[in-house]
Amino acid sequence: LAAFCPGADLRLTVHKLPDGRLPVHWDEAKAAVEELRERTDPDLVLAPRTDDAHQDHRGLAKLVPTAFRDHLVLGYEIVKWDGDLGRMAAYQPLSPEIAEEKVRLLQEHYASQRHRPWYDREAFLGLARIRGIECHARYAEAFAVTKLTLDLGE
Q1: Helices 121-134 and 96-109, interaxial angle, to 10°?
Q2: Which pTM value belongs to this model?
Q3: 89, CA 20 to 30 Å: which among 26, 71, 78, 129?
Q4: CATH number of the domain at 22-145, out of 3.50.30.10, 1.10.3720.10, 3.40.50.10320, 2.130.10.10?
């Protein structure tokens, strides 16, 4: 996390929820998200998309907006074999250098995923290129937005 967010004030809490079992540990997961909200007041919350095919990702995506009701929550996408990529609503253009750096960091720091056939440079840059096309940039990240409050003044 520190490699992705240099200079940020990072505080990490790890809970012992079994992988792939969030639905049966709903109360514990909900308590963890609510406890996080009590300790923080972020400007932006990044969480999985609510229509992510993985049950843990989808469950977390449903919990986050219930705790962070007055916050901007952006749902990120995870390329994987499920084929659950959707239509995004928010885009962050990336320079080619930032796109390459992100891929390098993903490959360097998430060794637990390296064995997966979809976890490679081509997949990450390919998705970033497609999202870039959608927002008239070379590369981009895209996010789902379930609620956005605009304050345009009066």
Answers
A1: 140
A2: 0.87
A3: 26
A4: 3.40.50.10320
